[in-house]
Amino acid sequence: MARQKEFNQDVVLGKAIECFWQRGFSATSMKHLEAATALTPGSIYNSFGSKDGLFLACLDHYNETVIGARVKQYLLPAEAQYLNDPLAGIEAFIETAFDPGPAELCLGCLMVNSSVELGPHEESVRLRSKTAMKKVVKGMQHALGQAQAIGQLGSDIDCRQRAQSLLLLFNGMLVQWRGSPDKQWLKHAMHSVKDLLH
Description:
Elements: H1 9-23, H2 30-37, H3 41-48, H4 51-75, H5 86-95, H6 110-118, H7 123-149, H8 159-179, H9 186-197
Helix pairs in contact: 1-2, 1-4, 3-4, 4-5, 4-7, 5-7, 5-9, 6-7, 7-8, 8-9
């Protein structure tokens, strides 16, 4: 009979995410992960197979609980302040991404960071990044379509193309944030976002 896990997987993944987020995959050791999660090496290997397995589980969890939750909150609101102002929802989705992360550090986006670090040679990371970006583009496209439906956005706008342009700008901003944590550039970047929305 298989031994049952004696830990809350969501809590463990949350702690491991913070660890990978702050250091990146390569600079995160098993000792770092053991300290962050309070798990023994055996528990990590039994549950996730390896450091790589834990990392991929973290990306999946991040995609669902962070990216997915933010898309739902700002871009696909069922009943929220952005329901009647979808363009404001897109602006808020982008701007709030630059709030401080764990430990008040300017960490950027775990998915974008991982894509930059590992994407060129790790297909499993590329696939997860592609899934996450597709989720964001679809959310933005939906919000743009809603904006067209209520007259906020011209009917001549190609919502899919505009959503892809917004994502490219957003991803560039997230990379910029890693190198310029003072965020003085953010106001100018948000002007570019607004130019694409109005």
